[in-house]
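TEACHING EXERCISE
Course module: macromolecular assemblies
Task: Read the component lines below, then compare them to the predicted structure of the full complex.
Student: A.B.
Group: 4
Components provided:
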Amino acid sequence: MNSVLSPRPDTRYLVLDSALTLFTERGYFSTSVHDIGRAAGVSIGSIYHHFGDKEGIADALFSQLSGRMEALIGEIRRRHDSAHDQARELVARLFELTESEPRAMEFMLYAKHREFLPGQGPVCSSRPFELMREMVSQGMTRGEIRPMDTMIASTCLFGGPLRMITGRLDGVITQPLPDCLEAVWDCAWRAVATTTP
Amino acid sequence: MNSVLSPRPDTRYLVLDSALTLFTERGYFSTSVHDIGRAAGVSIGSIYHHFGDKEGIADALFSQLSGRMEALIGEIRRRHDSAHDQARELVARLFELTESEPRAMEFMLYAKHREFLPGQGPVCSSRPFELMREMVSQGMTRGEIRPMDTMIASTCLFGGPLRMITGRLDGVITQPLPDCLEAVWDCAWRAVATTTP
DNA sequence: GTCTATATCATGATAGAC
DNA sequence: GTCTATCATGATATAGAC
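Instructor-supplied answer key:
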């Protein structure tokens, strides 16, 4: 965070890190590029050199976080066979991430990107969400999940857990999410499962 | 919309109606008070006279819509006995409202109010959401809903339906919501119900 | 209560030295 | 690649006549 400690800090990283904090704390529109520069200890000229314009900052942030999510889901899908295990592991990991990196989670799935990233479609149409629907789709062909529209199944399976996350980020839910993973997952799976345990 | 048709249009109504459209189409921060005035056919001076400042417009909008939601839930709770019937009716009505008044729904449960209404807490802590939790709580004491934390039960019951609504508002879901009410409600209720039908 | 005209100021973005 | 200084625009909000 300071050039005294680290002689050659990566400007791009510094900027993105500060931007994430400010965007989630005050919102994109209440954050000026000057604010970001001040928080990152980087001049406004450098920022425009690296990102082109303000939207470029949000864009880079979205790409990076989206990539991480995608990688996470890919890893989970390789490690588990059943849709049940895959989805459960995903919810568990998202709950952990909500506690350890609340700002990253907030920016990814609780920001209204359409308002400041006209290029990007809605989050739900981004690659990570596509992968989640694939997960559900396979579970349906395997017979783990009742036959129904894939979009509906996916939304109903992950809807509860995702709203737990936004509730937690809002401070409406006070308990750390991993503490209620079992209860929430139980509800989520019952919603779509073929057999009740 | 025009003073030719109606000789004495209510300025407040005109402004709020235009503001709702613009806020949901472009977002709060990309809408200027001038824009609202132009769309409503009202001068900027009048707007400031009635609402004090820009935030006052959003505030009035939120109060009014929140009041309508509250009334809707109250009516539903009076008309049905069981939590099952109450919650199902609520989801049905919200699905209908999403089709008939998408902007109202979008402003109520898909806008990040914290970013432009610092006074208001998060939506989930507003009165309508409180009433929904009461609904669930009663269902639990009646034995309709499995015993668990009320917040978790409420989030898991309504999480799927609410995300269907945001998905529909985003255009990710193309089917009118009332068409998939049964499938969605089936999932939602299974998530928390004591007995599976 | 409604209007026009205006004050004030912050922001996104650029220029150009180093 | 980084910096400072500056521009240009457009926004919120106000003043004051009617």
